[in-house]
Design goal:
Elements (H helix, E strand, L loop, with lengths): L21 H7 L2 H4 L3 H17 L5 H19 L12 H13 L1 H5 L6 H37 L4 E6 L2 E7 H26 L1 E2 L15 H8 L3 E2 L3 H6 L2 H28 L6 E3 L17 H25 L13 H22 L2 E3 L1 H8 L6 H10 L4 H18 L8 H5 L9 H5 L1 H6 L9 H15 L1
Parallel strand pairs: 3-4
Antiparallel strand pairs: 1-2, 5-6
Helix pairs in contact: 3-4, 3-7, 3-9, 4-5, 7-8, 7-13, 7-20, 8-11, 11-12, 11-13, 12-13, 15-16
Bound molecules: arginine.
Catalytic activity: 2-(N(omega)-L-arginino)succinate = fumarate + L-arginine
Enzyme class: lyase
EC number: 4.3.2.1
């Protein structure tokens, strides 16, 4: 008796004397989550069948029958009519069984020279490649939305912080550009990871390759892979490409989370730097005055689960001997959830960036507190010939005296300022203004409005 997809569905039935229990069936099945791979599974099968026919391993008629059957299956899946059976364990066996029902022996020949091990590795790579392309597009959208915000506020001044203490005045455009840089590196990482995702495992079969005269490069070309995986054992077993993707995704979420933290702080009525459009916020069921920034808070929270998926995949991989082990079936849910979380988050953030209202007066008022231009005064003294450490000391005394009098450095008269250094002249007042302070940082990467505009122009060219 030959092994076949029996009525009960086990592809290996002849080898077994008793069926698995319902619990084991449920435990080992993956169909309810891996059916998401159906489209790429069919794409991979069609490329494999085309090659088998080209190499005369199956007949042209068989290939035609497989094509016809698969197109019907695609229709059934798209129309929600396909019956997914737990008994058939996973997406691969479900589709193969239906194909055989539809086209008979041709369907049974599809699996020649192939194993589910190289099949599933191919499917995940195809799926992930598509996801990376979508995510790259979403990162671009987000950067474009943030560029608009940066451009509107190239001149808007707010305090820049270190240690959450007012440090120096900066422009809001410059602050937003910092996130655009982060998301730019995230996009680079996605593209780089894509190179290693885009290699074909098919042909590795179960682990050692196959005795049939296959043409792997032909399949790679059909499926748009840049190369074939060069070692069959490695091809079916390693999921480093998925781990790499999850690491890149964790970094995107980390950047989203940092930005979320700032949005939440800025929107707090205590700070009041921004408002976020109502459609991204919710109220409280008990406190009528509340408008909560739920979207950034949730994004910050979801960063935890994406980081968790990275650790899950690393842990999944670390104890596995070569080659394929069933452990690898556990790669899918973390990977899928990472893709879903990242996709939704990026989409919502691009929308939300367009729904942010900046309150320049509040930002300005905050920048006027905390002696944000103290460094400018020190730099001024250095330019007049004082060594920096002495300038630092002189300004520290000036700040201390302002703290005692509860005033700002710019509130001191020339006479009062000269107490701290005779080098101070009346050209100091231009230096102590917020505008003077930001405009003076006029070099690549600096906060001057002119530099912010140049950076925006450069990025727009880059993003096309
Ligand atoms: N559902 C399996 C997975 O996701 C497919 C490969 C099964 N291979 C095997 N030898 N049992 O990894």
């Amino acid at each position: 008796m030959t092994a076949q997809l029996s009525k009960k569905g086990e592809a290996w039935s002849a080898r077994f004397s008793e069926p698995v229990s319902d619990l084991v069936k449920r435990y080992t099945a993956s169909v309810f989550f891996d059916k998401r791979l159906a489209e790429v599974d069919i794409q991979g099968s069609l490329a494999h069948a085309e090659m088998l026919a080209y190499q005369k391993i199956i007949s042209a008629d068989d290939y035609a029958a497989i094509q016809k059957g698969m197109s019907q299956i695609q229709g059934e899946i798209a129309g929600g009519k396909f019956e997914w059976l737990l008994d058939l364990e996973d997406v691969h066996l479900n589709i193969e069984k239906r194909l055989t029902e539809l086209v008979g022996d041709a369907g049974k020949r599809l699996h020649t020279g192939r194993s589910r091990n190289d099949q599933v590795a191919t499917d995940i790579r195809l799926y992930l490649r598509g996801s990376i392309d979508d995510i790259s597009g979403l990162l671009r959208d987000l950067r474009l939305a943030l560029l608009d915000l940066a451009e509107q506020h190239a001149d808007t001044i707010l305090p820049g912080f270190t240690h959450m203490q007012v440090a120096q005045p900066i422009t809001f455009g410059h602050h937003v550009l910092a996130y655009i840089e982060m998301f730019g590196r995230d996009a680079e990482r996605m593209l780089d990871c894509r190179k290693r995702v885009n290699r074909l495992p098919l042909g590795a079969a179960a682990l050692a390759g196959t005795t049939f005269p296959i043409d792997r490069e032909r399949v790679a070309k059909t499926l748009g892979f840049d190369d074939v995986c060069r070692n069959s054992l490695d091809a079916v077993s390693d999921r480093d490409f998925a781990i790499e993707f999850c690491a890149a995704a964790a970094l995107v979420m980390t950047h989203v989370s940092r930005m979320s933290e700032e949005l939440v702080i800025w929107m707090s009525p205590r700070i009041g730097f921004i408002d976020i459009a109502d459609r991204f916020c919710t109220g409280s069921s008990i406190m009528p005055q509340k408008k909560n920034p739920d979207v950034p808070e949730l994004a910050r929270g979801k960063t935890g689960r994406v980081n968790g998926h990275l650790i899950a995949l690393l842990t999944l991989m670390k104890g596995q001997p070569l080659a394929y082990n069933k452990d690898n079936q556990e790669d899918k849910e973390p990977l899928f959830d990472t893709v879903d979380t990242l996709t939704d988050t990026l989409r919502i953030f691009a929308d939300m960036a367009r729904g942010i209202t900046v309150k320049p007066e509040a930002m300005r008022a905050a920048a006027l507190q905390g002696y944000a231009t103290a460094t400018d005064l020190a730099d001024y003294l250095v330019k007049k010939g004082l060594p920096f450490r002495d300038a630092h000391e002189a300004v520290a005394h000036a700040v201390r005296s302002c703290v005692d009098q509860a005033c700002d450095l710019s509130d001191l008269s020339l006479e009062q300022l000269r107490v701290f250094s005779p080098l101070i002249d009346d050209d100091i007042f231009a230096v102590l203004t917020l505008e003077g302070s930001v405009a003076a940082r006029d070099h690549i990467g600096g906060t001057a409005p002119r530099q912010v505009r140049l950076a925006i122009q450069h990025l727009r060219q880059q993003l096309g």
